Amino acid sequence: MLLAQRPIQLVEAERDMMRRACAFNAQVMDFIRPEVKPGVTTESIDDLVNQYTRDHGHVPTQFNYVVGEETYRKNTCISVNDVICHGIPGPYVLQEGDIVNVDLTTTVDGWIGDQSETFMIGEVSDEARGVVQCSFDAMWAAIDAITPGCRIATIGKSITKLARDRGYSVVREFVGHGVGRKFHQEPSIPHYATPESYRQRLLPGMTFTIEPMINVGTRHGDVDKEDGWTVRTKDGKLSAQFEHTILMTEDGPEAMTQTKDGPRRGHQF
Ligand code: MF3
Ligand code: CO
Ligand code: CO
Questions:
Q1: What is the average per-residue pLDDT within 125-130?
Q2: Which residues on neighbouring strands pair with residue 247, listed in sequence order?
Q3: Beta strands in 126-261 (DSSP E)
Q4: Fewer CB within 10 A of the terminal residue: the chain, N end or C end?
């Protein structure tokens, strides 16, 4: 008989391994931060991440990662404008006005940190700034709302409330996830409330991501038929995302992937 897998709860030594992986992943984000600028190809950012990670003796987790039938051949996901997620780095040159999500994942001594930020390239439209701000605030609203032993639905409820209040939609096809020695593991962390998320609880020692994808228009997206990865909004409108890896402790959540130079909780873009 198959039993539902119980989400893993880490002891202190294991939590420290996750803290180290997440701190390094955040260091990579700070390393590429000055390079996310007009005139730069998304592929060159990917190359820099690969180089820096390997120079430090670590591994970009997304390289050769398999989902279903598809194998991912880059080290990062870089999702520009109407791309919801899983944008493949390539020859596209970043331009003033773009919003660009860079999603980084690193394996450090067998433990995995996963995070993303949406960058604004130069001056952007009010619409672009608004959706970036909403995805950042939605992630932090969820982090602020969760407590040890709370239902996973706490996350989805706080994110959908904030997005709805500001007139944005929340993507459902892609969700947060448990992360640890495996990239994607139990529990699933939907950014909207589901029956399953009401049944499951966030217990001390659990590590997982919160990574809301917020859209200006429809919540629905399409996977690119040619490359099998890139997910674009169906209406071509903008999408933004932020992601942290979180440890639930006995005292509350700890966002382990916080950077030194990036936007902190409460930041106004
Ligand atoms: N980093 C993404 C996440 O946050 C997953 C990317 S899967 C890949 O879950 F295969 F595209 F790398
Ligand atoms: Co993730
Ligand atoms: Co990620």
A1: 98
A2: 207, 254
A3: 169-170, 176-178, 185-189, 207-210, 213-215, 221-223, 231-233, 239-241, 244-249, 252-255
A4: N
The pair of structure tokens assigned to 130 is 């608004």
Is the beta carbon of 63 within 6 A of some atom in ligand 1?
Answer: no
Write out the DSSP string of 73-134: -SSSEEEETTEEE-PPP-SPBP-TT-EEEEEEEEEETTEEEEEEEEEE-SS--HHHHHHHHH
For 196, the 3-state DSSP assignment is: helix
- Residue 134 Cβ < 6 Å to ligand 1: no
DSSP 4: P
Residue 49: Cβ within 10 Å count = 27
Q: How far is residue 101 from each of residues 10, 48, 55, 76, 159, measured CA to CA in Å?
A: 30, 16, 24, 10, 19
Tell me the C-alpha distance between 256 and 250, whole Å.
15
Alpha-carbon gap, residue 66 to 155, rounded angstroms: 27
Q: Which atom of ligand 1 is nearest to the CA of 179?
A: 9
Closest C-alpha to ligand 1, atom 9 = 176
CA of 257 to the centre of ligand 1 (A): 16
Three-state DSSP at 255 gives strand
- Ligand with minimal distance to 72 CA: 1
Percentage, residues of the chain above pLDDT 70: 99
pLDDT tens per residue, range 138-163: 999 999 999 999 999 999 999 999 99
Distance separating the N- and C-terminal Cα atoms of the chain: 51
Host H or E run for residue 158? helix 153-166
Integer angstrom CA distances of residue 143 from 46, 91, 191, 192, 241: 28, 35, 12, 14, 15
Claim: this prediction has a pTM higher than 0.90? yes
